[in-house]
């Protein structure tokens, strides 16, 4: 559970060191020792072990039971039904693009290709449109409003983004700064050769 179920590779025992959280405040989140779990036969199970996990199918079922989507595609994505509950998701997806050179649109379209719902060629065209979009808004909320609780303005945010962008996969100007398109998206090296 700690590895795959929400802490993304962290352990509860990491949190007091990394986040300066008191150990006593984490008692309810600590797992028994593996030897104890093995002794009584406990194992973690995920629904995806038993049914093919498909966000689109899940969204259709949820909509039949009252779930509301939005009227447009979510920024940086290709769907209108996921990540509707957190304005910071646009920043997260943009950071992923800056680090790895692909974002949420690529993730979703790759799954659609594997399921035979779209061709690779059509997916690549959508990726070029939707991946790596600078998150100036997310779900209609401005980036400046999203950054406000962090006491960071857009200029500071852009400097942080540029500082931590993977320079091996994006084009640079002669002065070493990142080349960007008119929307602020860094230009990938060999992007046209996909």
Topology:
Blueprint: H1 15-18, H2 34-40, H3 55-64, H4 89-100, H5 104-114, H6 120-130, E1 137-138, E2 141-142, H7 143-147, H8 154-164
Antiparallel strand pairs: 1-2
Radius of gyration, rounded? 20 Å
* Unreliable runs: none
Arrangement of strands in the largest sheet: 1-2
What is the helix fraction of residues, given as a range? 25-40%
Q: Quick one: biggest sheet? A: 2 strands, antiparallel
Beta-strand level of the residues, as a percent range?
Answer: under 5%
| Structural shape | globular
Distance between the termini: 36 Å
Helix and strand run = HHHHHHEEHH
Helix/strand class:
mainly alpha
Number of strands: 2
Global mean pLDDT:
89
Compute the number of helices: 8
């Amino acid at each position: 559970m700690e590895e795959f179920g929400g802490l993304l590779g962290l352990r509860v025992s990491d949190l007091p060191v990394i986040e300066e959280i008191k150990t006593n405040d984490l008692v309810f989140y600590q797992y028994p020792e593996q030897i104890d779990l093995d002794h009584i036969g406990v194992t973690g199970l995920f629904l995806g072990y038993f049914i093919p996990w498909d966000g689109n199918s899940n969204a259709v079922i949820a909509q039949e039971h009252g779930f509301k989507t939005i009227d447009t595609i979510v920024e940086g994505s290709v769907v209108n039904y996921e990540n509707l509950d957190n304005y910071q998701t646009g920043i997260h997806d943009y950071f992923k693009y800056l680090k790895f050179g692909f974002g949420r649109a690529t993730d979703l379209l790759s799954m659609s290709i594997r399921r035979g719902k779209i061709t690779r060629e059509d997916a690549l065209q959508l990726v070029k449109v939707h991946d790596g979009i600078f998150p100036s808004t997310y779900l209609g909320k401005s980036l400046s409003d999203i950054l406000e609780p962090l006491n960071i303005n857009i200029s500071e945010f852009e400097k942080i983004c540029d500082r931590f962008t993977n320079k091996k996969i994006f084009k640079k100007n002669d002065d070493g700064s990142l080349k960007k398109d008119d929307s602020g998206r860094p230009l990938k090296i060999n992007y046209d050769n996909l």
